[in-house]
Amino acid sequence: xxxxxxxxxxxxxxxxxxxxxxxxxxxxxxxxxxxxxxxxxxxxxxxxxxxxxxxxxxxxxxxxxxxxxxxxxxxxxxxxxxxxxxxxxxxxxxxxxxxxxxxxxxxxxxxxxxxxxxxxxxxxxxxxxxxxxxxxxxxxxxxxxxxxxxxxxxxxxxxxxxxxxxxxxxxxxxxxxxxxxxxxxxxxxxxx
Length: 192
Description:
Blueprint (H helix, E strand, L loop, with lengths): L1 H7 L1 H10 L6 H7 L6 H11 L4 H5 L8 H10 L3 H10 L5 H14 L4 H22 L4 H21 L5 H8 L4 H15 L1
Helix pairs in contact: 1-2, 1-3, 2-3, 2-4, 3-4, 4-6, 6-8, 7-8, 8-10, 9-10, 11-12
């Protein structure tokens, strides 16, 4: 009955699930994430379900329609298995998945030296990717390079929370020579 209701009235379904979270309905709550007005109560329900929602969420990471929303919810969950999964996604072949994993991990931060080690390995992989892309020519390679640089700055943000790596990246991309120079100085100071 609830599965039919989730199609006709996703907001009401998500609100009901957030008031009475049950792992039996985790898949329904995941489906409700894609409806804008139902996102918040569906997210609340899934976070309250905890590990009971884990498999329903992880099964949708590669679904293009759900991936961004699911990764956001995964980042809000306090579950060591999910944290390990997010760290594993840092080495995924799909660039979008890697980027979303970085953003999800940023919601709660890193919790151990092992987490930091995984992030350092991810930075190394992204740097190798940058080298490979730089050796290619064409518009697509420039976009891939910029995208990889953005992921690297996101990874730096995980290791050094609270530092303005996003602003530094935007300043480095600026046409203003002084902005770029200042960004390089701040970056050097932050990483020293």
